[in-house]
Amino acid sequence: MCGRFTLTAEPDKLREIFQISDTSNCQWEADFNIAPTQMVMTVLYNGETKQRELRSQHWGLIPTWAKDTKIAAKLINARAETLAEKPSFRSAFKRRRCLVVADGFYEWKRLETKKQPYYFQLQDKQPFAFAGLWEKWHPDDENITSCTIITTDANELLQPIHNRMPVILQPQNYEKWLDPQLQDTEILQQILQPYPAQQMSSHRVSTKVNNPQHQSPECIVPES
User: Fold this and answer.
1) Is 2 one of the annotated active-site residues of the chain?
2) How far are the Cα atoms of 51, 52, 55, 87, 89 from residue 22, in angstroms, in the given order?
3) Given the residues 10, 16, 98, 107, the one annotated as active site
C-alpha cells in the first residue's frame, strides 16, 4: 500500500518534469510527511486548454455516489488488479486518471516489538508520479475533487518490507495515462507495473514519521 509520502521539490523542477505551463493557481510548500485525507498535488489533463495542469486534491477517493466523506479514508489506495471491477474505481479508471506528484514514500516493516519505517525514492532523487484516479463529488453546493493512489505487487527492493507498492509511472507513460480518450482497460493495465528495483533506493528512518504532525526534514534522515 501507500500510506505516507513526500513532496519537497521546488516548483520550477515540477514544472520542468511534468511539463506544466501555468502553476499560478496552485501553491505548495515542501512536505516531508503527507498523510491520508490531506491535500496532495496532482497533474490532470485539461481537455479545453489541451494542457496539463496542477491541482490540489483530497487524498482519499470520494465516489460520486458517496453519502459523505467518511469513505475517503478507506479509499486512499486502489489495487491495480481490480480497478476495472470495483464500483468505486471503474469509472475513474476509464475517464479520470491523474498523476500524484511525489519524490519519495514510506513503508513500514513489521518487527516483533514495533513497525520500522523505511523511506523509498528514485536513485537520482528526482520527483516522480504515482498512478492515480480522481473524482468530483457534489454535495449540496460544494465541489470536492479527490484522488486515490494505485498499488501493485512489490518489486525486489520492497518485498522484504511489504508485499505491495505504489505504482510509479515511467515518464514516457504520462501522456498515455492522462489521455481521457484512452479507455481500453487492457492497455491501461499494462502500464501498472512494479517500478524497476535497480532504479530505486531505500533506507531506514526514525519512527518520528509515524506521527503526521512531524513535518521536518528529519523524517527522511537515514537512521543508523
Assistant:
1) yes
2) 9, 9, 11, 34, 29
3) 107
